[in-house]
Amino acid sequence: VIVAYYSRQREFAADSGAAKLVGADKMRSALERLKQNHPSQLEGSMMAFGIASGKGMAELFSSHPPLDARIDALRR
């Protein structure tokens, strides 16, 4: 859980850095495109490692924050 938390924080930092390089609008657009991809095909315990997952308890163990949270962070 602790490692996953720091992984999610690094992901927010990476999004921020990318937004500085290419522009926040382009970064948000890229994340929106990720949201439009097919739903995750991962099952069971592997769902926690999915980038676009993040529902309920799976969010606690996920290595990436939910895409909506990443987009919201870029808007701030």
Walk me through this protein's architecture.
- With 76 residues, this protein is mainly alpha-helical.
- It has one domain (2-37, 45-75).
- Helix content is 63%, strand content 0%.
- It has 4 helices and no strands.
- Helix 1 (2-22) packs across helix 2 (24-36) and helix 2 runs antiparallel to helix 4 (67-75).
- The mean pLDDT is 82.
What topology emerges from the helices and strands here?
Elements: H1 2-22, H2 24-36, H3 57-61, H4 67-75
Helix pairs in contact: 1-2, 2-4
In short:
By secondary structure, the protein is mainly alpha-helical.
The overall average pLDDT, rounded, is: 82
Specify the structural class.
mainly alpha
SS elements, strand count: 0
What is the share of helical residues? 55-70%
Largest sheet: none
Head-to-tail CA distance between termini: 26 Å
Radius of gyration: 12 Å
Shape verdict: globular
Question: How many helices?
Answer: 4
Oligomeric state as shown: single chain
Regions with pLDDT < 50 over 5+ consecutive residues?
Answer: none
Tell me the number of structural domains.
1
Strand proportion, as a percent range, falls in under 5%
Element-by-element helix/strand order: HHHH
